[in-house]
Amino acid sequence: MEQLTREREPQGVVTRTEDAKDGEQLFGLAIALEDTNWLQNDDKRRIRRFVNAATLRIEQSRLPSCSWYQWRCLRTRRALQAAIDDAGTPP
To answer: Each residue of 7-34: b (16+ CB within 10 Å) or e?
Structure first.
């Protein structure tokens, strides 16, 4: 989790617009900034997936445990499991 939440800096020779000496370095900086933005968005997607999976595991662990002869409990557990599965599917 710490790896996904760290701050990212643009990689390259020039990391600030003020340090660019010509258009080529400025263009390289623009590409590096775009790459950094994409990586940050990818990190956010991965964190969201991790949190959603962890939340589903917690919800499933809190479902009631039922014996095979407890029909009402089993029916309730199946309904809760279906609600969790429906909420866990991505849009």
So the answer is: eeebeeebeeeeebeeeeeeebbeebee
Among candidate residues 66, 90, 22, 69, the one with its CA nearest the CA of residue 79: 66
pTM given for the model:
0.59
Tokens coding 84? 């969790």
Residue whose C-alpha is closest to residue 1's, from 48, 59, 55, 60: 48
SS3 65: coil
Tens of pLDDT, residue by residue over 73-84, are 888 888 888 877
Is there a contact between 29 and 20 (Cβ–Cβ < 8 Å)? yes
